[in-house]
Amino acid sequence: MKDFDEIKIIADLIIPTEELTFIMSRSSKPGGQNVNKLSTRITLQFEIDRSASLSEEQKTRIKIQLRSRISKSGILQISSQDHRSQSANKKTVMQRFEELMRKALTEIPVRKKTKTPYREKMSRLKNKKHRGRLKKLRSEKYNVITDQD
């Protein structure tokens, strides 16, 4: 496994692994004989407020976007126990962290309101008038037939 020295989130943001804390614990998933002997679950902890890599604006954005994953003390926690090896779980946790941070920090462009084109508006009104005329014609014909009987 490639050991990460730093994580590149977006073009101008790199988070060094010194800012991350890894906690190893026993996994509750199946793991054969390893399950009782080895700590294969990895929990990544990232203290947002103490990060020197992030600007105040980025910290605020992350806190808003990832509020369900952040504890009251401001620690982002991500765990992995999908694999039977510690290194594979560590790699998975790092990838999830990178993905979450990238999603939280990418700005969604604001939608510009557009006006309905004049031609479309006129076409819709023309169709409405046409349907109305057809219905009116049908009702008059029906009335004429019934009056003769």
Textual characterization of the structure:
With 149 residues, the chain is an alpha+beta fold. It has a domain at 6-105: 2-Layer Sandwich (Double Stranded RNA Binding Domain). The chain has 4 helices and 5 strands; from the N terminus they run βββαβαβαα. The chain has helices at 34-37, 56-65, 86-105, 118-148; strands at residues 6-10, 13-16, 20-25, 41-47, 75-80. A 3-stranded antiparallel β-sheet has the order 3-4-5, covered by helices on one side. It has a two-stranded antiparallel ribbon with strand order 1-2. A hairpin with a 2-residue loop joins strand 1 and strand 2. The protein is elongated. It starts with 5 loop residues before the first strand and ends with a helix. The relative contact order is 0.14.
Strand content: 15-25%
What's the overall geometry? Answer: elongated
Number of strands: 5
Query: C-alpha Rg, in Å?
Result: 31 Å
Q: Main β-sheet, in a few words?
A: 3 strands, antiparallel
Number of helical stretches of at least 4 residues? 4
Give the CATH topology of one domain: Double Stranded RNA Binding Domain
Termini separation comes to 91 Å
Strand order of the largest sheet: 3-4-5
Low-confidence stretches: none
CATH class of one domain: Alpha Beta
